[in-house]
Specification:
Elements lengths: L7 H10 L4 H13 L5 H15 L4 H10 L4 H8 L4 H19 L4 H14 L4 H16 L2
Length: 143
C-alpha cells in the first residue's frame, strides 16, 4: 500500500499469492477498508483521471482496465461519469495533433491508418476517431 494504491481485489490476490489463509485475509481487507487504507471509489477516480492525462485513454479503455483491477461496476461508472462524448473528442483531437507531425509526410490513407490505429489502441470509438482526424486534417490544410 505504501508503493501504490490497490483495489480490494488486487490486495486479496496478493494475500492469496503469499498463502495467507482466506479468513485472515478477509479480516485484514475488512479492517483496511474500515480505516480507509483501501478505498476502491477513490482508486477508480484517481485512476481514471491519471490515465486520461498520462496515457490519453478513452472512457471505454479506463472502464476495461478498472474492471480488470476488480473495481465494482457501480464505482467504475461513477469514476467515468464526468467524461462525456465532447471530452472524448477533445482528447482524441489533442492526441492526433501531437502525432500529426510524425505522419504529415505520409499519404492521406497511410496517415489515417496510423492515426486511427493509435487512437483505437487507446479505446476510442470509430466515430470519434474519424471526427478527430478529420478535424485536425481540416485545420492543417487551412494553414
Amino acid at each position: 500500500l505504501t508503493r501504490s494504491a490497490k483495489t480490494k481485489h488486487q490486495l486479496a490476490q496478493l494475500l492469496e499469492k503469499k498463502f495467507v489463509p482466506a479468513d485472515i485475509a478477509q479480516a485484514l481487507l475488512d479492517r483496511f477498508t474500515k480505516v480507509g487504507l483501501i478505498d476502491d471509489a477513490a482508486y477508480a477516480r484517481a485512476f481514471a483521471h491519471d490515465k486520461r492525462l498520462t496515457r490519453g485513454l478513452s472512457k471505454s479503455a479506463i472502464k476495461r482496465e478498472l474492471s480488470q483491477a476488480g473495481v465494482d461496476q457501480e464505482l467504475i461508472l461513477e469514476a467515468i461519469e464526468p467524461i462525456d462524448s465532447e471530452a472524448e473528442l477533445e482528447l482524441a483531437i489533442r492526441l492526433v495533433e501531437k502525432r500529426w507531425s510524425s505522419v504529415a509526410k505520409l499519404d492521406r490513407d497511410a496517415r489515417y491508418r496510423r492515426l486511427s490505429g493509435y487512437l483505437g489502441r487507446r479505446g476510442f470509438a470509430g466515430s470519434t476517431i474519424s471526427s478527430a482526424i478529420h478535424s485536425v486534417a481540416s485545420s492543417e490544410s487551412a494553414r
